[in-house]
Amino acid sequence: MHHTSLIAILVAGFVLAFVFGALAQRLRLSPLVGYLIAGIVAGPFTPGFVGDQELAPQLAEIGVILLMFGVGLHFSMRDLLSVRAIALPGAIAQIAVATVLGWGLSQLLGWSHVAGVVFGLALSVASTVVLLRALEERRLIETERGRIAVGWLIVEDLAMVLALVLLPALAEIIGGGAGEEPPSVLLVLLKTFLKVGGFVAFMLIIGRRVIPWILERVAGTGSRELFTLCVLAIALGVAFGSAEMFGVSFALGAFFAGMLLNESEFSHKAANETLPLRDAFAVLFFVSVGMLFNPMILVEHPFEVIATFLIIVLGKSIAAYAIVRAFGKPDSTALLISASLAQIGEFSFILAGLGLQLDILPERGQDLILAGALLSIILNPLLFQWLDQRMRKGASTMSSRPPRAIPAIPDDLSGHVILIGFGRVGSELGRLLQAQKVPLVVIDGEDDLVEHARAAGLPSIRGNAANERVLAEARPERANTVMLAIPNVLEAGEIIARLREINPGLTIVARAHSDNEVRHLLEHGADGAVMAERELAHSLAEMVMATPAFRGDRHLPPASA
């Protein structure tokens, strides 16, 4: 049965992505595997529902724009500069090795040199989603080797952005028809750099001033919907405008829009407000990529698939291991970088899609890239499990204890208060407790909020408190009190239940926004729950009763039971 409506493809995409994504999560695989399989199920190469082959790529294009906008929004030059001595030359060398290996395989398959280069580049870049998830689960992001891995990934992303800029120019150079004189290489490159330079200059001179000004005015209205729409309008508008006015790709325009927003004081709010929509369209992007994959390549060309897989898992990993060791880093760091890079993902799909669109890469090349991505993402958790086992066995070059973030929580810390969430409520609570000399440990998942807490002199842990490893770093078994200032009551309930298992004697107080939420928190083991709206109303009422007109013997009822 064929459906061609927008509603049908959205419903099928989200439902299938949820089902297979949840199944992948259950099997301790990356949800990306599930999203790609959902696309294969909805694609023309499998029986049953077939998504609209014209509409799906357009939804995928929106996904690419929002995906690249998110990359720019979280781009950190500081992270790159902190490890530039190894990440910059190391990533470039590893990209070169993987590209040469991919090009070599393409020559055996009889492809053109340009197709081989595009194929190799697509195999050289790791998935941001997969890598960061693996590092976060193991509490490695704030360690030295974790920062090297993140810096390495940033260099790879920048290299792929540059490749996306140059690929259309390359296609123009080699795309002369029969009897036509191919255009001058220098002329095409000059034209490309002039377009990109004009776009960059426009964004730095005008965009850097106009975008923050618009955001500030919209944020001042207090309308959450308008702010979200403003951010999306900037992301999509800059991407579309960059393509129409300067002839550069949607991806570059969206990436630059995210970078400029990253410099704004509203970047954190922009990231949070647009995250659900960015996630939704990113899922549709992966589903649409899966729709292009012909699973028969696994049967018809198994040796080509195996060769592609080995380049990703062995070729890249061996190159990365040798490079890191050549820089004098320990074996543990080299193994972590190798395992982190032994997979490919979103940038590979974007590059393959552009190569196919420009008639540079054959369809079989895209199928091999997708097959390599699926197999490598499935294998990646197993590589990290092997690495974890190696660490636990206490190899001579690896510590048997989990790596600890810097600054570390003092080993002798006890009788302290754990503050979970350092947003507007948590930061004010932290300031008040710190003023009373109460020993505090902060847990938050946002980089800027953790940095804010550390700048205030508070020991802080980056991560989600629902993660057992994150919670263990805060020493809850020796704590006195836990204050949950996060607004998500379901997440807070799970954290409270886990805290009760670790230390039944803890005093736990949480934040709520309704009577039902208060009930939920108390049922999960909280000693008390503060409803913010009720406390605010009580404080305002006290101010009214303190005025001369109402001052007297009358007293307000207690704020909460």
UniProtKB/TrEMBL annotation:
Keyword Amino-acid biosynthesis belongs to the record: no
Residues annotated as transmembrane: 6-25, 32-49, 55-73, 85-105, 111-135, 147-171, 183-206, 227-260, 280-299, 306-328, 334-356, 368-387
Localization (cell): Membrane
Family matches, as SUPFAM superfamilies: NAD(P)-binding Rossmann-fold domains
Keywords, alphabetical: Antiport, Ion transport, Membrane, Transmembrane, Transmembrane helix, Transport
Topology of this chain in the membrane: Multi-pass membrane protein
The keyword Ion transport is annotated on this UniProt entry: yes
One Pfam family, short name: TrkA_N
Superkingdom: Bacteria
Domain RCK N-terminal: 414-530
Protein family membership: Belongs to the monovalent cation:proton antiporter 2 (CPA2) transporter (TC 2.A.37) family.
Name assigned to this protein: Kef family K(+) transporter
